[in-house]
Protein backbone atom coordinates (compact mmCIF):
# COMPACT_ATOMS: atom_id res chain seq x y z
CA UNK A 1 0.00 0.00 0.00
CA UNK A 2 1.43 3.42 -0.94
CA UNK A 3 2.17 5.87 1.88
CA UNK A 4 -0.60 8.29 2.79
CA UNK A 5 -0.43 11.76 1.25
CA UNK A 6 -1.80 14.48 3.51
CA UNK A 7 -3.24 17.33 1.45
CA UNK A 8 -2.22 19.80 4.19
CA UNK A 9 1.42 18.94 3.47
CA UNK A 10 1.08 19.83 -0.21
CA UNK A 11 2.69 23.19 -1.12
CA UNK A 12 1.29 26.58 -2.00
CA UNK A 13 2.07 27.77 -4.62
CA UNK A 14 1.27 24.36 -6.14
CA UNK A 15 3.88 21.88 -7.29
CA UNK A 16 3.91 20.34 -10.78
CA UNK A 17 5.53 16.91 -11.07
CA UNK A 18 5.66 14.01 -13.50
CA UNK A 19 3.83 11.04 -12.03
CA UNK A 20 4.51 7.39 -12.88
CA UNK A 21 0.93 6.44 -11.98
CA UNK A 22 -1.23 4.65 -14.51
CA UNK A 23 -4.23 6.83 -15.33
CA UNK A 24 -7.31 5.58 -17.14
CA UNK A 25 -10.67 7.14 -17.89
CA UNK A 26 -13.62 4.95 -18.84
CA UNK A 27 -17.06 6.03 -19.95
CA UNK A 28 -19.74 3.32 -19.91
CA UNK A 29 -16.90 0.82 -19.46
CA UNK A 30 -15.21 2.04 -22.66
CA UNK A 31 -11.64 3.26 -22.33
CA UNK A 32 -11.41 6.89 -23.50
CA UNK A 33 -7.95 7.79 -22.11
CA UNK A 34 -4.97 5.74 -20.95
CA UNK A 35 -1.47 6.88 -19.94
CA UNK A 36 1.54 6.39 -17.73
CA UNK A 37 2.97 9.69 -18.99
CA UNK A 38 1.08 12.30 -16.97
CA UNK A 39 1.69 15.14 -14.55
CA UNK A 40 0.02 15.91 -11.29
CA UNK A 41 -0.42 19.23 -9.54
CA UNK A 42 -0.25 19.15 -5.75
CA UNK A 43 -1.69 22.12 -3.88
CA UNK A 44 -2.44 22.66 -0.20
CA UNK A 45 -5.85 21.20 0.83
CA UNK A 46 -6.49 19.73 -2.64
CA UNK A 47 -6.19 16.15 -3.84
CA UNK A 48 -3.97 15.79 -6.93
CA UNK A 49 -5.17 17.16 -10.23
CA UNK A 50 -3.89 15.05 -13.11
CA UNK A 51 -2.91 16.27 -16.57
CA UNK A 52 -2.88 13.72 -19.40
CA UNK A 53 -1.09 14.12 -22.72
CA UNK A 54 -3.42 14.65 -25.70
CA UNK A 55 -1.97 11.48 -27.25
CA UNK A 56 -3.54 9.44 -24.41
CA UNK A 57 -7.08 10.18 -25.64
CA UNK A 58 -8.89 7.51 -27.61
CA UNK A 59 -11.78 9.84 -28.54
CA UNK A 60 -11.95 13.30 -30.04
CA UNK A 61 -12.84 16.54 -28.27
CA UNK A 62 -14.33 19.80 -29.47
CA UNK A 63 -13.26 23.13 -28.08
CA UNK A 64 -15.76 24.96 -25.88
CA UNK A 65 -16.24 28.72 -25.73
CA UNK A 66 -15.89 28.54 -21.93
CA UNK A 67 -12.66 29.70 -20.27
CA UNK A 68 -11.34 30.40 -16.79
CA UNK A 69 -8.21 31.78 -15.17
CA UNK A 70 -5.94 30.19 -12.56
CA UNK A 71 -3.61 32.48 -10.67
CA UNK A 72 -0.85 29.84 -10.92
CA UNK A 73 -1.32 28.24 -14.33
CA UNK A 74 -2.93 31.00 -16.41
CA UNK A 75 -5.88 30.94 -18.82
CA UNK A 76 -7.68 27.62 -19.25
CA UNK A 77 -9.49 26.36 -22.33
CA UNK A 78 -12.39 23.93 -21.91
CA UNK A 79 -13.44 20.99 -24.05
CA UNK A 80 -16.62 19.09 -24.91
CA UNK A 81 -16.84 15.36 -25.46
CA UNK A 82 -19.50 13.14 -27.00
CA UNK A 83 -20.51 9.94 -25.27
CA UNK A 84 -18.96 7.10 -27.29
CA UNK A 85 -22.23 5.12 -26.91
CA UNK A 86 -24.49 8.01 -27.84
CA UNK A 87 -22.94 10.77 -29.97
CA UNK A 88 -25.93 13.04 -29.32
CA UNK A 89 -25.05 13.13 -25.60
CA UNK A 90 -22.36 15.78 -25.26
CA UNK A 91 -20.76 16.67 -21.95
CA UNK A 92 -19.53 20.24 -21.88
CA UNK A 93 -16.77 21.95 -19.90
CA UNK A 94 -15.64 18.95 -17.81
CA UNK A 95 -12.19 18.80 -19.43
CA UNK A 96 -9.69 21.66 -19.53
CA UNK A 97 -6.19 22.51 -20.66
CA UNK A 98 -3.71 25.38 -20.65
CA UNK A 99 -2.64 26.31 -24.20
CA UNK A 100 -0.21 28.95 -22.88
CA UNK A 101 0.51 28.12 -19.23
CA UNK A 102 2.66 30.28 -17.02
CA UNK A 103 6.40 29.59 -16.98
CA UNK A 104 6.34 27.23 -14.00
CA UNK A 105 3.63 25.10 -15.60
CA UNK A 106 4.91 25.04 -19.19
CA UNK A 107 5.32 21.23 -19.20
CA UNK A 108 1.50 20.82 -19.13
CA UNK A 109 0.95 22.93 -22.25
CA UNK A 110 -2.05 21.36 -24.02
CA UNK A 111 -2.25 18.47 -21.52
CA UNK A 112 -5.82 17.67 -20.50
CA UNK A 113 -7.38 17.47 -17.07
CA UNK A 114 -10.71 15.76 -16.45
CA UNK A 115 -13.23 16.26 -13.69
CA UNK A 116 -13.95 12.85 -12.14
CA UNK A 117 -17.34 12.37 -13.80
CA UNK A 118 -19.62 11.54 -15.53
CA UNK A 119 -16.97 9.02 -16.58
CA UNK A 120 -14.95 6.85 -14.20
CA UNK A 121 -11.34 7.84 -13.52
CA UNK A 122 -8.73 5.39 -12.27
CA UNK A 123 -5.30 5.76 -10.71
CA UNK A 124 -3.27 2.53 -10.72
CA UNK A 125 -6.53 0.59 -11.10
CA UNK A 126 -8.33 2.33 -8.21
CA UNK A 127 -11.51 4.18 -9.08
CA UNK A 128 -11.24 7.75 -7.80
CA UNK A 129 -13.77 9.89 -6.01
CA UNK A 130 -14.20 13.48 -7.19
CA UNK A 131 -12.97 16.34 -5.05
CA UNK A 132 -15.95 17.69 -3.07
CA UNK A 133 -17.93 20.48 -4.69
CA UNK A 134 -18.06 21.21 -8.40
CA UNK A 135 -15.35 23.85 -8.78
CA UNK A 136 -12.09 21.96 -8.33
CA UNK A 137 -11.03 18.93 -10.35
CA UNK A 138 -8.96 16.85 -7.93
CA UNK A 139 -9.07 13.06 -7.83
CA UNK A 140 -9.35 11.44 -4.39
CA UNK A 141 -7.76 8.01 -3.93
CA UNK A 142 -7.32 5.86 -0.82
CA UNK A 143 -3.80 7.25 -0.25
CA UNK A 144 -5.12 10.83 0.18
CA UNK A 145 -5.87 12.03 3.70
CA UNK A 146 -6.73 15.24 5.53
CA UNK A 147 -9.65 17.67 5.19
CA UNK A 148 -10.10 18.56 1.51
CA UNK A 149 -11.17 21.93 0.15
CA UNK A 150 -14.32 22.07 -1.94
CA UNK A 151 -17.12 21.01 0.36
CA UNK A 152 -19.46 23.20 2.42
CA UNK A 153 -17.62 25.57 4.75
CA UNK A 154 -14.22 25.24 3.01
CA UNK A 155 -14.43 28.01 0.41
CA UNK A 156 -12.36 30.50 2.44
CA UNK A 157 -9.47 28.13 3.16
Structure description:
It is a single chain. With 157 residues, this protein is an all-beta fold. The protein is built from no helices and 15 strands. It has strands spanning 5-6, 15-19, 23-27, 30-35, 38-42, 49-51, 61-70, 74-83, 86-97, 112-114, 120-123, 126-127, 129-130, 139-140, 144-145. The chain is globular and about 40 Å long. The relative contact order is 0.22. The mean pLDDT is 95.
Write a concise synopsis of the structure shown.
The protein has no helices and 15 strands. Helix content is 0%, strand content 46%.
Assess the beta-strand content as a share of residues. Answer: over 45%
Structural class: mainly beta
- Separate helix tally: 0
Uncertain ranges: none
Largest sheet strand order: 4-3-11-12
Identify the notable features of this structure and list them briefly.
single chain, 157 residues, mainly beta, four-stranded antiparallel sheet, 0% helix, globular
What topology does this entry show?
Blueprint: E1 5-6, E2 15-19, E3 23-27, E4 30-35, E5 38-42, E6 49-51, E7 61-70, E8 74-83, E9 86-97, E10 112-114, E11 120-123, E12 126-127, E13 129-130, E14 139-140, E15 144-145
Parallel strand pairs: 1-15
Antiparallel strand pairs: 2-5, 3-4, 3-11, 5-6, 7-8, 8-9, 9-10, 11-12, 13-14
Amino acid sequence: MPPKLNVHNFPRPPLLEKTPRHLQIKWNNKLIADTKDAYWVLETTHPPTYYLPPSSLLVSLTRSSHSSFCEWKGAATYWNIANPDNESEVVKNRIWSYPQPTKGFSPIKDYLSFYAGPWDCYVDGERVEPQPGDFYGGWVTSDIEGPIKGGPGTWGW
